[in-house]
Specification:
cation binding, Immunoglobulin-like, 21% helix, elongated, alpha+beta, TIM Barrel, 35 strands, 8-stranded parallel β-barrel, glycosyltransferase
Amino acid sequence: MSEKTPPQSTEEQRRRIAEARHPDPFAFLGGPHGEKRRVRVYLPGATAVSVEAGPELEHVPGTDFFEGTLPADIPRPWQLRWVDGDGGEHAGYDPYAFGPQLADFDLHLFGEGRHWHPQNFLGAHPTTVDGVAGTQFGVWAPNADRVSVVGDFNGWDGRRHPMRVRGGSGVWEIFLPGVTVGTLYKFEIRARDGSVVTKTDPYGRCYELRPDTAAVVAAPDEYVWGDDAWMARRAEADWQAEPMSIYEVHLGSWQLGDDGEMLDYRELAHRLVDYVTARGYTHIELMPVTEHPLDASWGYQTTGYFAPTRRHGNPDDFRYFVDHCHRNGVGVLLDWVPAHFPRDAWALAEFDGTALYEHEDPRRGEHRDWGTLIFNYGRNEVRCFLLGSALYWLEHFHVDGLRVDAVASMLYLNYSREEGDWLPNIHGGHENLEAIDFLRELNTVTHGEQPGTMVIAEESTSWPQVTRPTWLGGLGFSMKWNMGWMHDTLTYMGEDPIHRKYYHDHLTFGLLYAFTENFVLPFSHDEVVHGKRSLLYRMPGDEWQRFANLRLLYALQFTYPGKKLQFMGCEFGQGEEWDDTRALDWYTLDYPLHQGVLRITDDLNRLYRKLPALHRRDFTEDGFEWIDCHDAEQSVLSYLRKDDQGRMAVVIFNLTPVTREGYRIGLPDGGVWREHLNSDAACYGGSDVGNGGAVVAEALPWMGRTHSAALTLPPLGALVLTPEGDESS
């Protein structure tokens, strides 16, 4: 008899229940069954069982089954009373007296890949059914022969609470009366080959603290938010024309408590908000706080796509974090990882004994470099899972945007693969057509359902139209990390200034494509790990020159077209490479040169926010003009930033340690031009060479401009000028 064949005899059915192999336990247990209204209960370890206000059930000799006839005047559901082998008395409602709870409509949409909130019926949900409080469980495991809920309420015994499967949907469900918030649980799954695995809930909204991996029945979302003003503004905001300066944070190592342990979300909220508002950043971007088993993965190997990690507290603690940020005018972005997931046997990998969430063929289903598995974007239910996760963070946690990790690995079937180790698409190409469709749907759905939120791509190739609308053939992302600009700029700045004239195009080339996408300019965690050194120690020269170069680098980032991102520690010139096992080197702020880096970071943030010319046209060509990009011999660059109201800012860089007196630069207008920023100022640790705070433009044509001024360019210095009378001056 196959596992899927319904057992015929009562004895065979009992045996299959006791061996946790019955394909339809609701057809045998519970009841009442047939005209005789038979009730059957399976309670291992019980010595006597009765129905409250009804009969005592007969113990079937040699088994853990109890059976009897239910009087007609006892309605569903009925409560059982039983005595265990130690004489303990217990009472509880029979879970097999409850009918199916999941709506056919939900199952239908889920199967078609059109359910955007599958977490509303899958996972664990405290609820009341027929006046009885308990928890409704649901899990997708279409290739399983049997699925049971196991937990601390049933001794982790898979025989006690096998679930019912809902037709061809592959979804298993059961309502367990008396299971309350805080209960630990997993799903025990019997595969078709007879193997049994215990899996944590893919839709779990809370988990144990690592290294433990059970899901926790979470309370319904009843958090009282105080960010209504922020959320209303978010829905209407034109973020493309607003300043966006992002502070990227790893919560586990930004700061630690006095005991050396990680801080909780609530304390982090206050410390971080105070810090980033003092610096002038507009947003915090969190490296993944989705639950993950391994600290060293930094969260990029996710196992809990609907749960904030317990390392810092519970889901409401994380809601408090976001709420506090919003109340203080700080946006929150979250790194989100739909590209791959880890192989942990207790999580998504071969979830029901088969390659369910991943591809079965390793040429499609494995990331060789990372030792992880790739989602099967062609499977409807997997797309629902990922879409549901994305919307859940935006809706239930009020997160303002998602930064999608490793997009390039999703787009290309041959990403980081040798010839012969990948399978082409149906047209013979290397594009992952299913992933492309998923990304377009992701962006269409999130932007439609949550207006004003952002989805940002970490995409490292020249894939076209990443940030163009889907209806124009684009992928529909809000923004894309400009990895080319980042690599070229850091390569240039890492060269000794005497050689920089040979690398001048590294700073000018980026403007050839700067407006083909909506770009973020990132100096992220990836640039200060794995032997790359900190940004400070990637700069050449002696100590003074390293700090001057770092200030120059940040001045370039904050005045160049595009939104800004800095990883924690960069803002004060962290000297050591980032180490996720310890806090940042805050002690360095005792030293003047580090204080100077922090001060110029503050001033650049404020200048970027204050001058509309530096942010209102970040994504369009009419917001930028070269003044002179050709002076490679002296390593000097100058450009003009403009907004939509005619306001201007002129930016000049001297990328060598040579002071240049009387350097004439073309300007668009005459009169006084105020010096808003001089990166060589003494307050930053510079040599204080400059122009006394202002220059006067003469009616002397120069560099194709009607006016010009002779400037003193400080060594390894940047200047930002605006015309006097400009309302932002």
